[in-house]
Amino acid sequence: MKLKSLTKKIHSQTLIFTNQRALYWAERQALIISDLHIGKTAYFRKNGIAVPSGILTDDLTRLAALLIHYSAKELIIVGDFLHVGRNADFRIFEVWLQEFSQLKIIIIKGNHDQIKAEFMSVLPAEIHEEQLIIEPFKFIHVPDEESDNFTVSGHIHPGVSVKLERNKYISLPCFRYTERQLVLPAFSKFTGLDTKSCGDFHCIPFNEDFIFEM
Q1: What is the mean pLDDT of residues 154-176?
Q2: What torsion, rounded to 10 degrees, do the Cα atoms 128, 25, 151, 20 define?
Q3: pLDDT value at position 85?
Q4: What's the predicted TM-score (pTM) here?
Q5: Of the candidates 35, 23, 18, the residue with the CA atom closest to the CA atom of residue 154
Q6: pLDDT classification of 183: cutoffs 50, 70, 90
Q7: Residue 84: pLDDT band with limits 50, 70, 90
């Protein structure tokens, strides 16, 4: 894992944006991610769609490396922790979790998580139905521009098209932010990118080798 980062102060808090699809909140010692989508690859394979089996393992290896690097005490997942219920992918996660028995996990439910209320209740995590306020931030899965708090969300899998030479473009995942909100990239690499709804957002694109602000 080639870790690159960019640090910003938002509401007097130190937020470290990484090129590994995660945000670190220094004062809270919390790693923040969205859209992990555990179960998605196994679901696709079960339904006859050829998907490499190592995608989730790679995502969890990257997550473990980030937690260790930052000595994080909390993992905040801003929705779509799950894609489906307890399938083969979830068993991989259960084994992975044994290495982080002291980690506090906080999950704010996303649209994929909502249909699994009974299943989610048995997870070793603090579960919040729609939102969680930890001053000065509000964590919510779907972006909310009308909130009185600065919101941290996910859901849309933000990306941006960056122009290269000779009118060629490359699409990169990114963080998007305004004075009122921050939208996280999908942590799972098995997701698409929304490169069209940038609006008035500032963008922080990245790949495996760099991270920068536009």
Answers
A1: 87
A2: -90
A3: 61
A4: 0.90
A5: 35
A6: very high
A7: low
Residue in this structure with the two tokens 């139905």, named with its chain if needed: 129
Please name the residue that has the structure tokens 């393992």.
57
Q: Give the residue among 32, 2, 155 at the shortest CA–CA distance from 104.
A: 32
> How is the chain classified by DSSP, letter by letter?
----EEEEEETTEEEEEETTS-EEETTTTEEEEB---BTHHHHHHHTT----TTHHHHHHHHHHHHHHHHT-SEEEE-S--BSSSSSHHHHHHHHHHGGGTT-EEEEE--TTTGGGHHHHTTSSSEEESSEEEETTEEEESS--TT-SSEEEE-SS-BEEEEE-GGG-EEEEEEEEE-SSEEEPPBSSSSS--B-S--TT-EEEEB-SS-B---
